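Minutes, project check-in
Item: structure for the 123-residue chain
Input as provided by the requester:
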Amino acid sequence: MSLSIVLLFSKATAGVASSASLLSSVSRRFFPRLYPPMKLPRTTTTMGELFWGYFFVIIGSVSFFGFVFAVIASTFLLLSQNPLNQGLKNDRYYYCFLVPLTIPVITVAVYFHWLSMKLFKHA
């Protein structure tokens, strides 16, 4: 008998609960000082995560500045006896091959992006 009363009461108050939650979300929107946002727990970062983060940032920065030097700054250098510097300075074919080789690289990157999104969506 008591179970049927509880079920009847829960069905009767189902509409009230949804309107109360609607009223709560509306009041939070119009009165933000009365209802401050929920504070999320602070996440902790381990030393390993910090190491790998700094490692990748440093490797990326060194690679970027190295390639910028090889493409732009090496053309302004004086002639030297170093074969690497001499080769970078006298490179005439870099820009000839840059645009045609960018197309297959972009195609592969777009395919892997599509594949990763499919795997993420259906995982």
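Outcome recorded: The helical segments are 2-12, 14-30, 47-71, 83-89, 94-121.
No further action items on this chain.
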